[in-house]
Amino acid sequence: DKGLSSDEARKRLEQYGPNELAVSKGVSPWELLFQQFKNVLVIILLLAVGMSAFLGHGIEAIAIGVIVLFAVILGFVQEYRAEKAMEALRKMSAPTATVVRDGEECEIPAREVVSGDIVVLSTGDRVPADGRLLESMSLQTDEAALTGESLPVEKHAAIILGEAAVGDQKNIVFSGTVVTYGRGRAVVVATAMQTEFGKIAGMLQAVETEDTPLQKNLDKLGKTLAKTALGVVLVISIMGYMRGQPLLEIVIFGIALAVAVVPEALPAVVTISLAIGVQRMVKRHVLIRRLPVVETLGSTTVICTDKTGTLTKDEMTIRKIYAAGKMYDVSGSGYEPKGEFSVAGKIVAPTPSLVELLRGGTLASDAKLIKEEHGHGIKGDPTEGGIVVVAAKAGLLKHDLDAHMPRTGEIPFTSETKRMTTLHRAGQSVMAYAKGAPEVILQSCTRLWGENDEQELTEKERKMILEQARTMASQALRVIAIARKGGVSIEESEKDMKFLGLVGMIDPPRPEAKDAIKQCRLAGIRVVMITGDHPVTAEAIARELGLLTTEKVVTGAELEAMDQETLTREVDNIGVYARVSPAHKLRVVAALQKKGEVVAMTGDGVNDAPALKKADIGVAMGITGTDVTKEAAAMTLTNDNFASIVAAVEEGRGIFGNIKKYLMYMLTGNLGEVALIMVTTIAALPVPLTPVQILYINLATGGLPALALALDPPEADLMSRLPRGLRSGIFSRPVIFLMLVGGLWSMAVNLAVFLWALGSGRSLTQAMGMTFISLILIHFFKAYNFRSDRHSIFRKPFANKWLNYAILWEILLLLAIIYVPFLHEPFGTFALSRTDWLVIVLAALTVMPILEIAKLMIRRTQA
Q1: For the chain, how are helix, strand and coil distributed in percent, rounded to 5?
Q2: What is the spatial distance between Cα 187 and Cα 783, in angstroms, rounded to a whole number?
Q3: Cα(617)–Cα(300) distance, rounded to whole angstroms?
Q4: What does the pLDDT look like over 211-237, one tens digit per residue?
Q5: Catalytic residue among 117, 125, 130, 306
Q6: Where are the beta strands (DSSP E) in 444-573?
């Protein structure tokens, strides 16, 4: 009654600290900026800038410098904005709290609440700390953000024996949840980081963000290219020195060739591919926070999804009605007042008994059907909303019924009575309608409403009605009974009532979710449901969506009994996790990742945030999601729809495919150049290219044509392929084979052109010029071949308009280098004759049929 004294509260506040979430020390902006330069490719590109400047190629140096700057700034901005989840958690704390101090109720800042405080709660209050209820008057709280429970939770002050999951602790109120109904008092048992919200915050801080598969692959590639470039420089330098070449000439040539080994446009290509994918995703209701995550979507192997609002509509819908001995099925989904009634599959018009049941349920409800921008919604309790909507399907509108039979009194719902009764004026008399738990409503009924008359409610009929209620409940329906009584006072309204019937409702699956799950299966992606909802409800929805075949359902309690090793062993056999806590979700994600899966995790509540951050890609709900969830996640669905995740996976696969096309194209070209130089050096032949020619080839072929491949349309069969394995990386065996064929053939063809030119009496400078032109043209032809590593070039060869424009532009520049006299000396070119053109073009063209034969061999091997 008296609560804590002010002195005692002050002592506890000093001893245990304020009731607010701790924030881990962040990384300074300068540290973040410095981290961007730790990337191996960025370091190589900075060296390339210095080399190009040293060789006097200012344009090349500026171009590479701009690419480096763009990549560094983008990475800095992304990481600077990435870690705001803790601040969002702090905002969810209640600003003030009503407590009992020195025997008086007073309002204090929530940060000053301490363990032992008596907190006073009423409708609309945000709970300031975790508390054990001392008294409860019809108290209900919304725990969706914490446990994932889709409906308000009834609270009581009774003792609960044994262990209980967070969602089953009905005598505890939790920090950050909201009181939706009733009032109560609780003694604070945990504050700050000791609350359930605080534990989530601690887990969120402890979770480390993993690099995406693309980042890992590109880092590995960067290190490989760095070693390759160094090796090339050493080999060429040693051989040149042994042949007596001047040291400066050797160094300049080695540096030029090393620059050619590194695809310096790679960061720009990756960024452009991801940015364009992000723009396309916005049109498909997906917002991306961190660009590299787009590619991760493409390699996703498991999607762990919440149930409420993602797979379902988060709109309670009545599916079955039992009235006058008949079981009606109701069509329609969500809060749209459209649907039909059927008995045994045959559509029927609403009968008088059905109309009376729906009238009674609607009059005894406070929820209202409202028109919204994109359809209909409900204002009020979701359960009552389902009753109001199904009545509207029968032509009974809430506002018309209220006007015709105005409410004159009510006995409100309480967790103890489990029923609500309202009185209405009907002409000169009064009509009472009640709705509530079937066993409670039946207890107050002595008569049964029939189709044409009423009859006495016998014990046999009571058992039959309760059996119907149990059958409906076994189908994961929430069952509500409805009854009426005429001409009564409020004192006598809940005695000797007439039973009208039962309604069974559920939060139904989204119509498009079933097709999306089928598409996932086709694409080799497993879908797992993880929810805080009841196991029976979760299993029913999962089976309706086709989520469960041979997999089993596991509850949070069963999960708690497993050690991590057992869970990792069993995780492939579990399709649904029900009644789980935030820690359980983290364990599931960790177990899947240990099995080598790339995990996408969806969520909307605070309880989902640690698992979203731990997952390879966290997916937050844009409509129902909390700020905490959105900040912890890598992407947000603007329509909260599971089907949008599948659309995002398709985009991710397309983006990865384009990055792979670019790398195949660039590296096979680089291989051809390096192999040509190495072969001529070993054979003691003259070097076929000058440093300037090497650098120009790198710029012309690795510039616009390479960037255009980042804009290539996705291949039609993307979503019928299995996800690529994490260990396979970018370069699978078929890809390596294709690159080797293209590179080695390029080397052979250009060597033949060089030797033919020398053998035909041309000067070394002219032979080098012809090799230079041949090498550029063979790159251009290969760009079209590498639009796919499996399909023929003749399937829509010119579908990429940007590639067409890029090649056309580069050909015009090449013609200028060949025919503008003052460019002859720096580039070692001359005006070609018809014979020269014929030899060069035919030689370059040979790469196309060779690569097509290689693709045919790959297709036959994979068939």
Answers
A1: 50, 20, 30
A2: 71
A3: 9
A4: 555 666 666 766 777 677 677 777 777
A5: 306
A6: 445-449, 454-456, 478-486, 497-506, 526-530, 552-555
Q: Are 385 and 480 in contact (CB under 8 A)?
A: no
Query: Parallel, antiparallel, or unpaired for β 326-330 and 317-323?
Result: antiparallel
Element (H, E) at 293: helix 292-298
pLDDT for 51 beyond 70: no
Instruction: Give the per-residue pLDDT at 591.
Output: 94
Exposed/middle/buried for residue 291 (C-beta within 10 Å: 0-12, 13-18, 19+): buried
Residue keyed to tokens 């390479």: 706
Asked if residue 602 lies in contact with residue 645, where contact means CB atoms within 8 angstroms, the answer is yes
**Averaged over 380-401, what is the pLDDT?**
93
pLDDT digits (tens, 9 = 90+) for 281-328: 778 888 776 666 766 777 889 999 888 777 888 788 999 999 999 999
Least confident segment among 461-465, 606-610, 614-618, 638-642 = 606-610
Residue range 356-366: average pLDDT?
Answer: 96
Q: Is pLDDT at 63 greater than 60 in this prediction?
A: no
Residue 463 pLDDT > 90: yes
Q: Cα separation of 128 and 817, whole Å?
A: 74
206 pLDDT tier (thresholds 50, 70, 90)? low
CA-CA distance, 257 to 279, in Å (whole number)? 37
Kindly give the residue spans of alpha helices, DSSP state H, lying in 595-690.
609-614, 627-632, 642-682
Which residues make Cβ contacts (< 8 Å) with residue 425, sequence separation at least 6?
405, 406, 408, 431
Q: Respond yes or no: is residue 306 known to be catalytic.
A: yes
Q: How far is CA 565 from CA 262, 558, 808, in A?
A: 43, 14, 59
Q: In the structure encoding, which two tokens stand for residue 127, read together? A: 């709970």
pTM for the full model? 0.63
- CA–CA separation, 253 and 236 (whole Å): 8
Structural tokens at position 692: 């300037």
The mean pLDDT value for 696-717 works out to 80
CB 637, CB 645: distance < 8 Å: yes
Q: Residue 255, CB half-sphere, CA atoms under 13 Å: how many?
A: 19
Number of residues written out for the chain:
863
Q: How far apart are CA 655 and CA 670, in angstroms?
A: 23
Q: Is 522 helix (H, G, I), strand (E, B) or coil?
A: helix
223 or 564, higher pLDDT: 564
Please state, in angstroms and rounded to a whole number, the distance separating the CA atoms of residues 134 and 187: 7
Report the pLDDT value the prediction gives residue 599, as an integer from 0 to 100.
92
Report the distance separating Cα 186 and Cα 115, nearest Å: 11
One-letter amino acid at 761 equals G
Return the DSSP state at 4. B
| Nearest CA-CA partner of 21 in 72, 65, 86, 68 | 86
Q: Which two tokens stand for residue 194?
A: 């000791």
| 238 contacts: CB under 8 Å, gap ≥ 6 | none
Integer angstrom CA distances of residue 616 from 293, 610, 633, 717: 8, 12, 10, 24
Report the SS3 class of residue 724: coil
Euclidean distance between CA atoms 475 and 534, whole angstroms: 12
User: Measured between alpha carbons, how far apart are the two ends of the chain, in Å?
Assistant: 79
Question: Residue 84's pLDDT is what?
Answer: 43
Strand partners, 321: 328, 503
| Among 734, 753, 751, CA closest to 851 | 734
Instruction: Give the Cα separation of 258 and 240 in Å (integer).
Output: 15
CA angle 645, 648, 653 (to 5 degrees): 130
Q: Higher-confidence residue: 50 or 665? A: 665
Element (H, E) at 31: helix 29-35
